[in-house]
Write a structure and sequence with these properties.
By secondary structure, the protein is an alpha/beta fold. It has two domains: about 110 residues, no CATH class; about 200 residues, Rossmann fold. About 25% of the residues lie in helices and about 25% in strands. It is built from eight helices and twelve strands. The strands form three sheets. Strands 3-2-4-5-6 form a five-stranded parallel beta sheet, with helices on both faces. It has a four-stranded antiparallel beta sheet with strand order 1-12-8-9, with helices on one face. A three-stranded antiparallel beta sheet has the order 7-11-10, with no helix packed on it. The longest helix is centred in the last third of the chain and has 13 residues. The protein is globular and about 65 Å long.
């Protein structure tokens, strides 16, 4: 009778999926990213990655403008270089606009707080800093999800926000808040709205940075906030950070998620718990994330990072390890 590992070895075949736009999470699954010396090697697979498609992207910042947000806005403004660095490195054609969570003010309610920014904007950093410092006189009833829907639908897309949302561009929405969303409607409805804006739902990224005021203590309830639920509904194209003290790394991770593509490799068979894998991209060790089976990948998948813009080779090495 063949061993379980041998059966798995003969049955597991991987196939490469197309790269989307978002960045994989920066950690490894329980297998780690190094092969153990006490395990038995049993094979490897390699895959050729196509060059990454460079697509324009429209980025909407949804910023809480209630009374407790001054510090958070200042942190966002002072970390412009961290946020924009990946856009510049990748030479992205971007639109960058901002709205607030205030849906009671007649001058806000989904309207861009300033003209949206592009790579051609004069003095881009100063314009960004001015745009994101939206003030703290907004409604205490934060409605970031409702503001998103208003900003990206009629009548605003044909009037106040005209030109921001492009049919051919990818879409990214970033929430910066220190309170939960109080919009009317379910998270599933808002998720469906965003997916419906694009012919390919995998071109939509949703990120949430919640409560940069980490020194006041982290509110554990944030893990169940509606902003979190919306981001997580986008799977690998979602990003969540709560109570962070490392603003630079957080904003770099968000911009990377928007600017770069993940390399998603679906599994043909579910990995045995005793199997360890190591991943290399173009001969260099790469971090990876194992994702359990879901609706899209019935047998699970892995994401590898980095995904080289010009394409290349991914190699996966396997070992069988018994505890």
């Amino acid at each position: 009778m063949p061993s379980r590992a041998a059966i798995l070895l003969g049955a597991v075949v991987l196939a490469l999926s197309a790269c989307g736009r978002t960045q994989p999470l920066r950690y490894a699954s329980d297998g780690g990213d190094e092969l153990r010396s006490d395990c038995e090697p049993w094979g490897e697979d390699s895959f050729t990655l196509p060059p990454m498609e460079r697509r324009p992207v429209d980025v909407l910042l949804v910023i809480d403008d209630s009374g407790s947000m001054r510090n958070d806005q200042s942190v966002l403004a002072s970390n412009f270089q961290a946020f924009i660095s990946r856009f510049r490195a990748h030479q992205l054609d971007f639109h960058l606009g901002a709205v607030t969570t205030d849906m009671r003010s007649s001058t806000r309610s989904g309207r861009l707080v300033a003209p949206y920014l592009t790579p051609q904007t004069t003095n881009l950093e100063a314009a960004f800093q001015q745009m994101v410092n939206v003030g703290t006189r907004g409604s205490a009833r934060e409605q970031g999800l409702a503001a998103t829907r208003a900003a990206l639908s009629e009548p605003l897309t044909s009037n106040d926000n005209r030109g921001f949302l492009r049919p051919s561009a990818d879409l990214a929405v970033l929430y910066v808040a220190d309170e939960d969303d109080q919009s009317t409607g379910t998270v599933a409805e808002f998720s469906g709205f965003l997916r419906g804006l694009k012919q390919r739902p995998d071109t939509v990224t949703v990120a949430a940075i919640l409560d940069m005021r980490w020194y006041l203590g982290c509110d554990a309830t944030k893990s169940s906030w509606r902003f979190v639920a919306l981001a997580r509904s986008f799977g690998p194209r979602g990003f969540v950070s709560t109570c962070t003290s490392d603003y630079t790394s957080t904003l770099e991770a968000v911009s990377s998620r928007i600017a770069y593509s993940p390399c998603i490799v679906p599994l043909r068979r579910r990995l045995d718990p005793e199997v360890r894998i190591s991943v290399q991209v173009n001969g260099e060790p790469a971090e990876y994330l194992y994702r359990p089976p879901d609706e899209q990948y019935g047998e699970g998948s892995i994401e590898v990072q980095p995904c080289p813009p010009e394409g290349g080779t991914v190699r996966i090495e396997y070992q069988s390890c018994r505890e």
